[in-house]
Amino acid sequence: MNLLKMSVTSKKHTEGQHEQRKFSILRANTRLAGLILILVVLCLLPAESWAGKEASIQLPVSSENDYVLIGWNDLGMHCINPSYKELALLPPFNNLWVQVIQRGDPPKIVTSGISLEYSIVNNTTVKGKTDFWQYVQQLFGISLPEGIGLTGNGLSGKMQLVGDHFEATGIPVLPYDDKMNWNPFQIAKVTLRDNPGKGNKTGQTIQVVLPVSDEIRCDMCHMQGMDGTVNLSNGGTDSVDTNILMVHDYYHGVNGISPPLTSQNLVDMQPVLCAKCHSSNALGAPGIPGVKSVSLAMHSWHNGVDRASDGTCYSCHPGPLTQCLRTGISGMGYMGTTPTCQTGSCHGGISGMGDPNRNPWVTEPNCEQCHGSNYSTGGTLYRHSKGHGGIYCAACHNSPHEWWPSKLWADNLLPMKLQRAPYAIGDCRVCHTRKMDGDNPHSTYYPGNQK
Ligand code: HEC
Ligand code: HEC
Ligand code: HEC
Ligand code: HEC
Ligand code: HEC
Ligand code: HEC
């Protein structure tokens, strides 16, 4: 097998090209002065031998027909409730996307003749990790075998072809491995099967982070005696979730201070699915007309200075330990010690999130707002948009919140495997077998809604 040779990475490579440009200028000088010639030759030597070393780093793909698998999770983080006994905000539900490209001249997006399988590394059972399946019938009105998620997928299985990519939706992955170690960054292994192309290896795999966390810290304020329990007798109970239902009843229950909407208190309806009354685009739940969406109710209510003045995005979203926003790109991750979601530059802070005019899960930040119109995705979400040659933005940049390079090493496994560098996929040789010129896939070729 002829392993294709490559140099150090897109970034480093560009730096290398810089060096070579400088050398040509120096080379001109050499014709002018003998002394300089000697110095320049001395300078040139290490570079020429560096260029020679291009051969020393190998690309893992092998021949013209090789298939490149690129996978990502759609949101970059998925939140679950630690328990579903009393209330449910969101079920275990992770979406995995994969695009397959056949290397060549030109490269092709592959949708037929192959199949993809997924499994989760050291995470093969849901036993003892959640009580979701005990309450799923009451909460969602469907009975599901243990280990099977709301769309029929389990912790391993076959991916489905959806147009130009493959998907496994609603994977009920939990943040505990089989030894019950807590880790919100589980790793899916995707394996290529039935690969018909010549020179292709059936069994070729990639690893993709499936992020899931139960670190929603309602307890910071709704634990007995905390700010969220001031109106409950005895400062509430020792169950955080019961306290939440009780404070909801205090305001909107049968004897609540606002006119009640139902003839039942939430504490008597357990387990309570919030989306039963508050619409949620995430669950496709219509809610009760006139009642705010889960997102609007939660963000606008908790925006009050007297309610959650010390709250941050990480009080409810995962979280102080999980640190959902983990890109290493400065300006899109942390500003000092503060995640940028908090400062408002992407989501508009808690006031932006509590804006009644936004459509939850649909009105989301885009790249254009900071990088300009060359990077517009029009009215389409970043996570559904495509660029260069029909490749998804997220295939080259990764999921929202974990854009390459990521501070979490596991996120970087894929670009490291494909191009030996944790940056956006920019080494043309990952997909093209003809030598291509251009700094990155944007400046070179951008059909569709991009330059
Ligand atoms: C930073 C503090 C803080 C955090 C974090 C927090 N809450 Fe609250 N929440 C409050 C306070 C304060 C109240 C109002 C208590 C009162 O007026 O009696 C409240 C009220 C509520 C209410 C009642 C609203 C109504 O009008 O019926 C619900 C429901 C609620 N919180 C759910 C949650 C959930 C679910 C979480 C976690 C995902 C959460 N809260 C996290 C502080 C917080
Ligand atoms: C039986 C219906 C019902 C269920 C179930 C329900 N709510 Fe509500 N909730 C309401 C109604 C009605 C209101 C008041 C008006 C509104 O939000 O439009 C309300 C108000 C709220 C508010 C205050 C919004 C505001 O700005 O005044 C929050 C926060 C809230 N609910 C969170 C939750 C959470 C979290 C759950 C799940 C534990 C939940 N609700 C379950 C009916 C429900
Ligand atoms: C008091 C708890 C709480 C706080 C604080 C909070 N969130 Fe949320 N957030 C939620 C809940 C609960 C949902 C799930 C809504 C649903 O199921 O539709 C959610 C959903 C979201 C969503 C997806 C749905 C949508 O409306 O687009 C985004 C984005 C989001 N939050 C961003 C933020 C940001 C940014 C901050 C900090 C500025 C923040 N949240 C602070 C509880 C909170
Ligand atoms: C809130 C503003 C903001 C948004 C929104 C934003 N970015 Fe950025 N981005 C930045 C900043 C600031 C930098 C750092 C620029 C620098 O260091 O010169 C950056 C840098 C980058 C880089 C590294 C570029 C380089 O030359 O090093 C990439 C790649 C990138 N962004 C991709 C994206 C993508 C993809 C999106 C949409 C999902 C996006 N950005 C949305 C602010 C933003
Ligand atoms: C074939 C791979 C590929 C695809 C597809 C792709 N990008 Fe990029 N993108 C790159 C590379 C490589 C860079 C340069 C990154 C760097 O400098 O670190 C980049 C840079 C960017 C930047 C930073 C620009 C700056 O100001 O420096 C943004 C924003 C961006 N891309 C958005 C998008 C969006 C939106 C899409 C989808 C419509 C997309 N990209 C699709 C590879 C890709
Ligand atoms: C992730 C895979 C991928 C990467 C990386 C990539 N391309 Fe492409 N490229 C494609 C695909 C797919 C097409 C579409 C081919 C078609 O339309 O048939 C394409 C088409 C092109 C085309 C037009 C067709 C042709 O062969 O002339 C050019 C030019 C091009 N890419 C340049 C580049 C350059 C330059 C880079 C590196 C900076 C790059 N590409 C990186 C996948 C990639």
| Sheet of most strands | 5 strands, antiparallel
The end-to-end span amounts to 38 Å
Structural class: alpha+beta
Helix content: 10-25%
Bound molecules: heme C
- Round the Cα radius of gyration to an integer and report it: 26 Å
Average pLDDT number:
84
Q: Order of SSEs, N→C?
A: EHHEEEEEEHEEEEEHHEHHHEEHHHHHH
Report the strand count: 15
Query: What is the global morphology?
Result: globular
Q: Segments where pLDDT lies below 50 for 5+ residues?
A: 1-57, 445-451
Can you describe what's shown?
Strands 3, 5, 6, 9 and 10 form a five-stranded antiparallel beta sheet that branches. Strands 8-7-11-12 form a four-stranded antiparallel beta sheet. Helix 1 runs antiparallel to helix 2 (34-52). The protein is built from 14 helices and 15 strands. It is globular and about 75 Å long. Helices cover 25% and strands 14% of the residues. Strand 5 and strand 6 (108-109) form a beta hairpin. The chain has a domain at 5-58. One heme C binds at residues 87, 244, 248, 252, 261-262, 266, 272, 274, 276-278, 291-292, 297-298, 300-301.
SSE diagram, text form:
Elements: E1 5-6, H1 10-30, H2 34-52, E2 57-58, E3 67-73, E4 87-88, E5 94-102, E6 108-109, E7 115-120, H3 132-140, E8 157-158, E9 160-162, E10 165-171, E11 185-193, E12 205-211, H4 219-222, H5 240-252, E13 272-273, H6 294-301, H7 305-308, H8 313-316, E14 334-335, E15 338-339, H9 340-343, H10 349-353, H11 368-371, H12 393-397, H13 413-419, H14 441-444
Parallel strand pairs: 4-13
Antiparallel strand pairs: 1-2, 3-5, 5-6, 5-10, 7-8, 7-11, 9-10, 11-12, 14-15
The chain binds heme C (6 copies).
One heme C (HEC) is lined by residues 367, 371, 375, 377, 382, 385, 387-388, 391, 393, 396-397, 423-426, 440-442, 450.
